[in-house]
């Protein structure tokens, strides 16, 4: 039988005999939702629930840095994808399908969020479409999911204008309404190629973010020199408005196609302004260079993007799989390099998204995953079932089975 959160006493939890990434065998004591102590042979207090880790590898809860819970068809009949090749084809096709099918963002986001939790994700950033046709309907569904899972899953919501802002009057006002309604982050999309005016588009985005005191996460698919130009304009505004550490650039394909000198100059500016980069590590386009980002001090983290939706049949709520795909895309084979890929869906993602109190140390929030694997590299490659998932100090999944939520 699965253990539910209500099965656990409020007095605390002790997980015994688990292994850290460095091979040390420890126990983990949890109280009030946080790691109280981590070390060998911790005392078995009578008021603690004891779980035998049986030598499993201990990992921090995973972080999904970029997904679209509101779009997914997870658990629904197979969607037959016959969409055209252009970005605008995908946008229009999705809007049409969601309207015609009665797609329920609340129901679907809840199904996929639960699947993420079952696989070990305890913190998640999701982009939600804000659209003049649908209004705030998709946001309302995802807000309901966040409320339902709020005691065991941290969810940041990005108000995302999937069709851009300038070409659809009324979108700016809707984005403001979304931020007032509970969205945590302001999204944006391709200021040059979708909005057609990168200066006006970025000015609008940064003004709106400043008025609502929200950070920004922008989709930047623009290639090569066009993307570099847009990125430069964005960095100018980060510097001028003092928004260091409050901006994420998602995808940033242009950084994988620029001459090294131009690329490195942008990476140095990104690092100085603490602007993080998100990659889904797609196999079919250029990506920001992982090692160069690390050398320059740029935070690069990972996410799935869409999971099983009208844009793509691919994706999985298993962040170990996403880390493996990141490693494969960047040609990582050494164990220490695979640990970097895992960092993209754990520590680096938590840092970039601003999820506080993360990690495996006393005082951190107790978000833990136990797997039968020898090392972190082994866990990425084998992706074994999750023996135990703990979030906010509560057992939320055991042996791949959800607790009740």
Automatic annotation (TrEMBL):
Location of the Amidohydrolase domain? 50-397
Entry superkingdom: Bacteria
- Molecular functions (GO terms): hydrolase activity, acting on carbon-nitrogen (but not peptide) bonds, in cyclic amidines
| SUPFAM superfamilies found in the cross-reference section | Composite domain of metallo-dependent hydrolases (SSF51338), Metallo-dependent hydrolases (SSF51556)
Q: Which Gene3D superfamilies match?
A: Metal-dependent hydrolases (3.20.20.140), Urease, subunit C, domain 1 (2.30.40.10)
Q: Name one Pfam family in it.
A: Amidohydro_3
UniProt cross-references to InterPro entries, sorted A to Z: Amidohydro_3 (IPR013108), Metal-dep_hydrolase_composite (IPR011059), Metal_Hydrolase (IPR032466), Metallo-hydrolase_Enzymes (IPR052349)
What residue range is the signal peptide?
none
Q: What is this protein called?
A: Deaminase
The record lists the organism as Paraburkholderia xenovorans (strain LB400)
């Amino acid at each position: 039988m699965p253990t539910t959160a209500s099965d656990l006493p409020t007095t605390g939890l002790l997980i015994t005999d688990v292994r850290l990434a460095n091979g040390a065998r420890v126990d983990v004591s949890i109280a009030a939702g946080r790691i109280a102590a981590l070390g060998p042979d911790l005392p078995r207090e009578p008021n603690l629930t004891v779980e035998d880790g049986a030598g499993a590898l201990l990992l921090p809860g995973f972080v999904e840095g970029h997904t679209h819970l509101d779009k997914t068809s997870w658990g629904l009949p197979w969607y037959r994808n016959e969409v055209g090749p252009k970005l605008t084809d995908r946008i229009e096709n999705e809007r049409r399908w969601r309207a015609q099918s009665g797609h329920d963002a609340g129901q679907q986001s809840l199904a996929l969020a639960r699947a993420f939790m079952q696989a070990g994700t305890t913190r998640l950033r999701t982009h939600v479409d804000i659209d003049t046709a649908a209004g705030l309907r998709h946001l309302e569904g995802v807000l309901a999911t966040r409320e339902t899972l709020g005691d065991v899953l941290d969810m940041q919501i990005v108000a995302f204008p999937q069709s851009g802002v300038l070409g659809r009057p009324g979108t700016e006002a809707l984005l403001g309404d979304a931020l007032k309604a509970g969205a945590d982050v302001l999204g944006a999309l391709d200021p040059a190629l979708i909005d057609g005016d990168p200066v006006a588009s970025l000015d609008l985005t940064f003004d709106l973010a400043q008025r609502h005191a929200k950070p920004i996460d922008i989709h930047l698919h623009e290639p090569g020199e066009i993307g570099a130009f847009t990125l430069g304009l964005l960095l100018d505004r980060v510097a001028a408005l003092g928004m260091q550490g409050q901006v994420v650039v998602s995808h940033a394909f242009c950084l994988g196609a620029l001459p090294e000198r131009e690329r490195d100059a942008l990476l140095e500016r990104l690092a100085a302004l603490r602007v993080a980069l998100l990659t889904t590590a797609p196999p079919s386009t250029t990506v920001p260079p992982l090692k160069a980002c690390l050398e320059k001090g740029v935070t690069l983290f990972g996410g799935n993007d869409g999971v099983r939706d009208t844009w793509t049949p691919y994706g999985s709520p298993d962040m170990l799989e996403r880390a493996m795909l990141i490693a494969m895309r960047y040609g990582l084979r050494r164990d220490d390099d695979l640990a970097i890929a895992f960092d993209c869906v754990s520590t680096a993602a938590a840092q970039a998204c601003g999820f506080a109190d993360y990690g495996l140390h006393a005082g951190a929030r107790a978000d833990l995953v136990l797997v039968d694997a020898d090392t972190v590299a082994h866990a990425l490659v084998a992706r074994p079932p999750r023996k135990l998932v703990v979030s906010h100090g509560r057992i939320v999944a055991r042996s791949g089975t959800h607790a009740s939520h």
